[in-house]
Amino acid sequence: MQLPNTLGFLFGIIQMVMYLMYRNATPVALDEPVKVQESNGHIVGAVKMGTIDPNHAGAGLGGVGKV
User: Fold this and answer.
1) How far, rounded to the nearest angstrom, does the alpha carbon of residue 53 sit from its chain's CA centroid?
2) Three-class secondary structure assignment of the chain
3) In Å, what is the CA distance from 7 to each residue of 2, 4, 12, 36?
4) DSSP state of 32
């Protein structure tokens, strides 16, 4: 089918037109900074990232990588 190729072509044309429209736009300075919306002092939807100890391969991965 030619549908994926046709859609890609159309989206590419739209992207180039939008680039030509906004390439010389100047950013607008806000009077006061925008604050991140918080709920009861907690950010909603954040994920805590951690590190993996290289001496314990597979630790915390359900046993994947254990020798």
Assistant:
1) 27
2) CCHHHHHHHHHHHHHHHHHHHHCCCCCCCCCCCCCCCCECCECCCCCCCCCCCCCCCCCCCCCCCCC
3) 9, 5, 8, 36
4) S
Over residues 15-29, the mean pLDDT reads 91
Tokens, residue 65: 């990588």
pTM over 0.90: no
Amino acid sitting at position 50 = G
Distance CA 64, CA 59 (A): 8
Task: For residue 59, count other CB atoms closer than 10 A to its CB.
Answer: 13
52's tokens: 């993996």
The two tokens of residue 31 are 């009077």
CB half-sphere exposure, 56, CA atoms < 13 A? 8
